[in-house]
UniProtKB/TrEMBL annotation:
<dbReference type="InterPro" id="IPR000560">
    <property type="entry name" value="His_Pase_clade-2"/>
</dbReference>
<dbReference type="GO" id="GO:0003993">
    <property type="term" value="F:acid phosphatase activity"/>
</dbReference>
<protein>
    <recommendedName>
        <fullName>3-phytase</fullName>
    </recommendedName>
</protein>
<keyword id="KW-0732">Signal</keyword>
<feature type="signal peptide">
    <location>
        <begin position="1"/>
        <end position="16"/>
    </location>
</feature>
<dbReference type="Pfam" id="PF00328">
    <property type="entry name" value="His_Phos_2"/>
</dbReference>
<keyword id="KW-0378">Hydrolase</keyword>
<dbReference type="InterPro" id="IPR033379">
    <property type="entry name" value="Acid_Pase_AS"/>
</dbReference>
<dbReference type="InterPro" id="IPR029033">
    <property type="entry name" value="His_PPase_superfam"/>
</dbReference>
Length: 548
């Protein structure tokens, strides 16, 4: 592999390694962007090589007896939890209480998903409750771990390191001495190898838990994703895990819905919602930035002396915290993780929580509008009734075609994004997630429960179990698990408190239909309004009382 150093000037870099240069002065290549190319230029593609025959040409596959579908969600006494991040080297720092603290569990949407302990229903588990049987499952999942987005603060930070290294020069010492020889090895937007494994594992886990539902299908199922590279890659890795690498292309249909400006797509609804792309949306980062000035003020004083010749800012520190997450999920390890203390990580975690709350969560007036299209599709699937009113991100071309949008599957799988899933949770009135808002921007409240690392981490997964209780033919109940923890549905009109998170199916559907009535997509997405001050919104809608 030949590293390509994307630099205008030609420095002698190729053999430089961290540690091989002067310890206290930045090398001229500090901050440079590096990228590899594989396969090697000119390599023969294996498939076209007559030396390497395919499996069907070689033959002799050995016995190939298949077994029965697994159904662990009904037959096992408990489920296996997602509780590790293999093969990442999990950064652990000494916490304030003396206990080990893993920053990667506190980096919001940049955390790899882990099973959540509880969203307020600690007595239940994902296993189908006694006396019920499983009829149908709805899975909505996020893509896996990715590189930073194209416009990321991490790339800007690397640029600043490089500019400083090549102009006046700088010298890092102490916990920042690694910056002297640090280079930026991250690409943009696409899945990382670890991200691919997350989706493959999600697919395997889903087969082990829900495989028996395949017996109810009379045709191949349709799974949906969007056209972005990481979205398709995620969907395919899920399918490869669920069906097997040699079989997946023949065992289901993959619908790829275009994700692009102006498109109607319920899995990327911001593409047809003005207020998801202007100051109404940017309010999230504005609120988060108020908090970063506070939680990082002391950090700036602590770290500035360790970086002589470099004008360290609060934004740089935020980028460095992001780099801990991005480098670890991309490269397996990051020096940036050890730079910050437990309190600084908790500050960063809240920074992300604020950004989501006010940008895509309960506190943003365009959230419910963005999420409501998926709710319309969900109601259509639950009632087996085609959608006829088009007043949201729903794409009529897709949902009126039963080939593209079948209503009678036992398994539904949709892939989407963190920000979108956050809006869908608001549209579905999972109000327990919003119960402790609105969130202050000057301190972390004691009762804070809106943790993005639990709600929208990499490969976050929402599972709707449609059940019949008592076990019988017709479905009678539904419940929703987010990252293996049942969500209380008591915010949905008519749903009574239930220890397992169950709601009567007809009541749930009526609640969703009422949500569809409540949400004014056109006004909330396209209305010319400013966010009220203070922003006390907790239902993701512009307050009707403030409309002119
Ligand atoms: C759904 O039902 C239709 C008509 O009853 C049938 O043709 C189709 O194969 C079914 N699809 C699935 C995935 O079961
Ligand atoms: C609806 O989806 C179809 C199929 O992907 C696409 O060609 C069309 O442009 C979409 N329409 C809108 C308005 O987004
Ligand atoms: C340091 O950066 C800040 C923020 O970008 C800027 O306002 C300030 O002028 C810079 N100071 C120096 C000495 O470059
Ligand atoms: C796209 O969405 C808009 C707004 O809801 C709707 O008026 C239009 O009919 C939709 N177009 C398609 C093709 O779905
Ligand atoms: C959460 O704490 C804040 C103060 O930090 C308080 O104003 C609010 O009422 C509390 N909310 C709940 C639901 O306890
Ligand atoms: C959704 O939650 C809000 C409170 O945030 C409540 O006023 C409304 O009635 C709920 N709607 C439904 C249909 O559950
Ligand atoms: C929105 O309203 C403000 C003031 O009411 C006006 O200045 C602005 O031009 C309007 N923007 C759009 C896009 O209509």
């Amino acid at each position: 592999m030949i590293p390509i150093f994307m630099l205008a000037a030609s420095f002698a870099l190729v053999h430089a390694r961290p540690g091989s240069t002067l310890a206290h002065h930045a090398s001229t290549f500090a901050g440079a962007t590096t990228a590899a190319i594989f396969p090697p230029v000119g390599a023969t593609i294996t498939a076209a090589d007559t030396f390497f025959l395919g499996a069907s040409e070689v033959g002799f596959p050995g016995p190939t007896l298949t077994g029965d579908e697994p159904n662990a969600i009904e037959t096992a006494p408990s489920i296996a939890k997602m509780d590790n991040m293999y093969p990442l080297v999990e950064p652990t720092i000494k916490g304030t209480s003396g206990k080990a603290f893993n920053p990667l569990e506190h980096v919001g949407q940049l955390s790899p998903w882990q099973s959540v302990e509880s969203f307020g229903l600690p007595k239940t588990s994902p296993v189908i409750p006694k006396g019920c049987s499983l009829q149908q499952v709805h899975l909505l999942h996020r893509h896996g771990a990715r590189y930073p987005t194209a416009d990321s603060a991490t790339a800007s930070f690397a640029g600043k390191v490089r500019d400083t290294a090549t102009s006046g020069g700088f010298s890092g010492s102490g916990v920042l001495s690694f910056l002297n020889t640090w280079t930026y090895k991250l690409g943009a937007e696409i899945l990382t190898p670890f991200g691919r494994s997350q989706l493959f594992n999600l697919g395997v886990g889903f087969r082990v838990k829900y495989g028996e539902l395949l017996d109810d299908l009379v045709d191949l199922p349709v799974f949906r994703t969007t056209s972005e590279a990481r979205m398709l890659d995620s969907a395919l890795h899920f399918a490869a895990g669920f069906f097997g690498v040699q079989d997946y292309q023949n065992q289901y249909h993959q619908l790829i819905m275009i994700e692009n400006d102006g498109q109607n797509n319920t899995l990327s609804p911001y593409d047809n919602c003005d207020n998801a792309n202007n100051d109404v949306f940017f309010f999230g980062s504005a609120q988060a930035n108020k908090w970063s000035q506070i939680y990082l003020a002391h950090t700036l004083k602590r770290l500035s002396p360790l970086l002589k010749g470099f004008n360290l800012t609060i934004s740089d520190l935020v980028a460095m915290q992001q780099l801990c997450a991005y480098e670890t999920v991309s490269l397996g390890f990051s020096e940036f993780c050890g730079v910050f203390t437990e309190d600084e990580w908790k500050g960063f975690e809240y920074f992300i929580d604020l950004g989501f709350w006010y940008g895509n969560g309960p506190g943003n007036p365009a959230s419910s509008a963005q999420g409501i299209g998926y709710v319309q599709e969900l109601v259509s699937r639950l009632t087996k009734t085609p959608i006829t009113t088009f007043n949201s991100a729903v794409n009529s071309t897709i949902v009126t075609n039963p080939v593209l949008f079948p209503l009678n599957q036992s398994i539904f799988v949709d892939a989407s994004h963190d920000s979108v899933m956050a809006t869908i949770f608001v549209a579905m009135n999972f109000t327990s997630l919003a119960a402790n808002g609105p969130l202050p921007t000057d301190h972390i409240p004691r009762n804070q429960t809106y943790f993005v690392s639990h709600i929208a981490p990499f490969a976050t997964n929402l599972v709707g179990q449609v059940l019949s209780c008592p076990a019988f033919e017709e479905p009678t109940h539904i419940r929703w698990l987010l990252n293996d923890a049942a969500l209380p549905l008591t915010g949905i009109k008519g749903c009574k408190f239930n220890l397992d998170g169950l709601c009567d199916l007809k009541t749930f559907i009526a609640g969703m239909q009422q949500r569809i009535e409540e949400v004014d997509f056109t006004f909330d997405c396209f209305g010319n309004y400013t966010i009220p001050v203070p922003d006390n919104i907790v239902d993701g809608q512009f307050p009707k009382s403030l409309r002119k």
